[in-house]
Amino acid sequence: MDAPNNEVTITNVTTGQKIVGRFAYHNELKRPELIFCFCLSMAYDDGLRKFGGACIEITDEQALRDRIAGALLRRSRYRLDRPLLRADRITYYRTDAAVAEGVDIKNPTHLPFLKRDTYAAEQEYRYVFAKRGGYELNQVIVNRHHERNADIGKLEADEITVRIGSIRDIAKVRAA
């Protein structure tokens, strides 16, 4: 949520009517169904067993990133947004605190790397790419009629398989 510390002007583009006041916005992706995330954890503990009983440790993150990016470049079936691939740690935030240094909540390529602090124990790391049009920002005025979380729950889930070949040379199995 973006709550500027100043008044803003909202213009109705149909009527030209302007409203000036202190408003807060949800900065969100217009089409989150076009965003694809490969989620990993930087932690290795019992709390992650809810995601399954196996653990693969990546020993060369840059090689994994290069292989995923290469596979995305070879794909001809989907038109992808730029940047082609982003990879980063999740920034966990509190809803009552300012955003972390270096995070631009108006940059749609940053939004898939934000998560509420209640999930911080996951120590998540993501590889993210988007189909064309996925990185478009939508600012929605915060009000009691709009609940984005409920809207996201209604979206159809989609999957894309990205084949990168064997990772035996850059990963090892950890005992569960």
Structure description:
The structure is a single chain. With 176 residues, the protein is mainly beta. The chain has helices at residues 61-74, 148-152; strands at residues 8-11, 18-21, 25-29, 35-41, 55-58, 86-89, 91-93, 114-116, 124-130, 137-141, 171-174. The chain has a three-stranded antiparallel β-sheet with strand order 4-9-6, with no helix packed on it. A two-stranded antiparallel sheet has the order 1-2. A hairpin with a 6-residue loop joins strand 1 and strand 2 (18-21).
- Strand order within the widest sheet? 4-9-6
Largest sheet: 3 strands, antiparallel
Give me the secondary-structure category.
Answer: mainly beta
Topology pattern, helix = H, strand = E: EEEEEHEEEEEHE
Name the average pLDDT.
Answer: 84
Helix content: 10-25%
Shape: globular
Percent of residues in beta strands: 25-35%
Radius of gyration based on Cα positions: 19 Å
Brief account:
By secondary structure, the chain is mainly beta. Helix content is 11%, strand content 28%. The chain has a three-stranded antiparallel beta sheet with strand order 4-9-6, with no helix packed on it.
